[in-house]
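protien #1 (seq + structre)
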Amino acid sequence: MPTSYLAKESDAVGRIDYTAEEDAVWADLVARQWPMVAAHAAAPYLKGLDLLDMPRTRVPQCPDLSESLRALTGWQVVPVPALISFGRFFRMLAERTFPAASFIRSRQDFDYIEEPDIFHEIFGHTPLLTDPCFANFSQAIGEAGLRAGKEDYAWLIRLYWFSIEFGLTIEGGVTKTLGSGLASSPSELLWAVSEGPELRPFDVIDILRTPYRIDIHQPVYFVIDRLDDLFAAAERDLLADVATARRLGLHAPKFPAKLESA
């Protein structure tokens, strides 16, 4: 996918010199999103947000977050360009290393950005990585990816997409957002908890067969009634699940085909 953003270069220890405007974008995103996640996000995410105590008025630095995560779950955060290959992504997860795109979105993309930026990576992803069960699940996805053939990558990643990125769960009979793509998107968070999208029960094979697009709000979300069901998926033979899903075939997409520009 083409991008209009340039990666920010880090120094020898992983720190990045963000501009005053970039820090201001971060501060404004946090100010807008914090009360929204407080109202709609699941408890594990909110607990992780509290544990990390990340700065609200400037872009956090990956080395600082890594210090906290290592003490909690043995993970670290490393700056990378905006988009990396599936192979590199799976390898980093397997090594308990989260790849964080180093740039931050512009004001033009404030409400919704197709590609991951540092706000999505840090505000969206790192809180769940403070939880040992979520941290182990992400590592398991990475380890499965290392064993997978390239032809299986797009199938396997759907389990990560519909859980860690865009998962929902139930707390006290109320639907709560779990995924990082929801925590970091002001517009999609509200869409996900509205009556607009289709909600389906968490099922690994069903998820693996469900296509998605990264450039729109999701028309379908999977609801994890019990988080233990998600964590148990890490113990499954995920490559056998992928083989089953491939044999059954993809579901018909719930979204229109993307029109390619000339």
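ok now protien #2
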Amino acid sequence: MKTIYVVDGARTPFLKAQKGPGPFAASDLATQAGRALLLRQPFAPSDLDEVILGCAAPSPDETNIGRMVALRLGCGNKVPGWTVMRNCASGMQAIDSAIANIQSGRSGLVLAGGVDALSRAPLLYSDAMVRWFAGMMSLRSAGQKLQHFLKLRPAALLTPVIGLMKGLTDPVVGLLMGQTAENLAWRFGIDRKQMDEFAVRSHQRALAGREAGHFGEIVPLVDGKGKVYAEDDGVRADASMAGMAKLKPFFDKKYGNITAANSSQITDGAAWVLLASEEAVKKWNLKPIGRIVDSQWSGLEPEQMGLGPVHATTPLLRRHGLTLADIDYWELNEAFAAQVLGCLAAWQDDTYCREQLGLPGAFGGIAEERFNVDGGAVSIGHPVGASGARIVLHLLHVLRRNNAKRGVATICIGGGLGGAMLLETEA
């Protein structure tokens, strides 16, 4: 197996969706982050073998956004650019696709990452309204069109369909992602207090990491009016248990405990990593920050999708003869506080590990000081296509600053999937 090196990486600040579309299209986000990353390399953008970009919700005018961004980055017409989609792990899938091509010898130097501008998710017409439009287009005379227009019922037909809500609803089981997290909370007895405590800690850790300079991978964004966006803007200095308690459950209003505050934020952002083979490292005299040892994808029941990290990480570690205790640092994407707590509980549950993972008993626990040490998506945000790449990149920085060797980046994926990558830093 060829060694896969991570040479460098960069991401934008993650910008929380406010009222209306955010200041940047997805291609703008990916282009600004990619440009900053490539400008500090010893090779030209046209020396890349390919550009792979994960995106869960590209806009209609950015259909193959990977190719579009590659051209905007100055890679030239001959460098292939393409797009992958694996929901929340689209950015991780882009990295894994790059790994496969480097392993096969088809590529040696690849820019891979993810992006989404969720604030720009569209409002849609209902099927009934689309049929009304189609009927209008088929009519010829003014009289016919007037009669058809009089059949319009604005209240019934003009109520918009929120595209983001449809995208966050599992089409097989009909549950919003937050409802699948409620399933985990019920299964493992996770209460509201535990969720809110986790969310407050995520904000506190993100703030502490910012103050300590632990987010050096962020490159500022500049909009068309010259305004600079330098930091993740969803991190709250005033996050508190009292503040968390004020919010009502969102996904299950009668029996649930998951709120907007103990869930990941709807966010815009992009993240990239630069991957290279050993030959490319030597050719360009590159200085890797780490390497990707292995990856694993898993499937499970869609209504339990938040446990995807458990199902992906466990076989990955066992393949390498490792336990949870052998991992120095972890990045587990915080889709929901309850979902992360559910994963930690599942690994410590004898019955779950025996029946679902084929283990003789509980797999073990993870020390709090080794886990999401700079916060996660609850505080930083979760631009769906970008998060998988963000956690891989940030984990390498965490390992390096702590002189640690081994880490796991893992993520749950809508539809009942999980992804995990085993990383090591350079000695």
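DSSP finds 16 helices and 14 strands in the chain.
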